[in-house]
Amino acid sequence: MMPGTDFAKHLTEYLSLYLPGRRNMSPNTIKSYRDTFRLFIMFCRDEKKIRPESLSLAMVTDKVVCEFLDWLEKERQCGISTRNQRLAGLRAFFRYLQAEVPDGLFMFQKILHIKPKKGFRRPVNYLSAEALKEVLAQPDATTSNGRRDLALMALLYDTGARVQEIIDLSVRDIRLEEPATVTLTGKGRRTRCVPLMSKTRNIVEAYLREQQLLGKTACLDRPVFFNRQGKRLTRAGVAYIVRKHFAKAKQDENALFPDSVSPHVFRHTKAMHLVQANVNLIYIRDFLGHTNVTTTEIYARADAEIKRKALEQSYPNPIADDIPQWSEDKDLMSWLNALCK
Higher-confidence residue: 109 or 278? Predict the structure, then answer.
């Protein structure tokens, strides 16, 4: 074996055998890990002048990893969340290497002890009921693409689905008989069944009927949303559709919209509307496919109106209604004496 190929050997086994075979990771998760190492190899080649065919495990130190993370932020203008995501991908690989290459245990553990960077938590972007109604009114229902866009955005909101979950939908995943449901496959290949409201069900049924996808066994594995080539929409394609209709909706000055939008804003909007309707957080967790309710709690923390009402109900108002006004007594001592009574 040529010297300097141990990194390539173990990385190949990790991505092609360990993750799909022993961990049963989804293709999208493996792609995320792959992209992390593609960027890391690019950094080593361009910044450290280490050719990919010469990169060995001994060259990958905690110092090099930290320099890579800083490079992501400064040179590639990545956000802190992206930086931390790349770090998580690297740490998972070196956690795997502890058992595969025990003689490198000390260096691997130094990499594992690199802490994620703390960052500012951005407020949750979501739409009011008025803004959501305005967005869903934008697609031109007289055209085939307009009816597709309406079905797409209605499903994004009604199911609270991640964009990849909508892209991966096949015809067999949609049940139109009562009770109407959609089966979503989320992170870690976990599936969940979410209900469809009657209006969304009718929109989706009309769309599927128009596309001649109903009642045909041969169509069960066809994608629900597809492009002109008949292939599944991409994430970029869905984002383009959403931004196009948001741009038109924002021309209405009667509704408030966030500065930036993505397909994920529908998921945030559904979650916030459920919180505001006093739906139990455990149900919202299951509805959104979160593994931990602490993830779901960000929506409860984001709703200022819920905070205000909770404070009003929990604490008595310590401010008396009969505080004397300054204008009632021009003498300072008299005013202070009155204030303390």
Answer: 109
